[in-house]
Amino acid sequence: MKSIDLAFIKARRIEQKITMQHMAVILGFKNASTYMKYEKGDYYLKAVHLPLIAKELHCDLASLFFENNFAKSAK
Question: What b/e readout covers 13-44, taking b as 16+ CB neighbours within 10 angstroms?
C-alpha cells in the first residue's frame, strides 16, 4: 500500500520557493491556512489534487508517494 509523502511535498515546495498561498490557489483553496492543513495531514488530499501538486513541484506523480512497508516488516 502506498501513502502520500507529505514531508516530500513540503520539502519540495520549500526547495522550489513556492508559498503555501500559491499552492492554495493552484488547488482551488481560499487561503494558505487551508492548504497547510492538507500539507500537515489534518485533511486528506484528493486524487484530483495530486497531478496539480506534481506539476507545480516539477516532479513526477510517483514522487508524491512512499511505500508503506508495515506488512513486509510483520513477516
Answer: beeeeeebeebbeebebeebebbbebbeeeee
Backbone angles phi, psi at 30, to 5 degrees: -75, -35
User: The CATH number of 2-74 is which of 3.40.50.1820, 1.10.260.40, 3.40.640.10, 3.40.50.300?
Assistant: 1.10.260.40
Per-residue pLDDT reduced to its tens digit, 8-62: 999 999 999 999 999 999 999 999 999 999 999 999 999 999 999 999 999 999 9
Determine if the pTM surpasses 0.70. yes
By the 8 A CB rule, do 6 and 40 touch?
yes
Cβ partners under 8 Å of residue 65, min gap 6: 2, 3, 4, 5
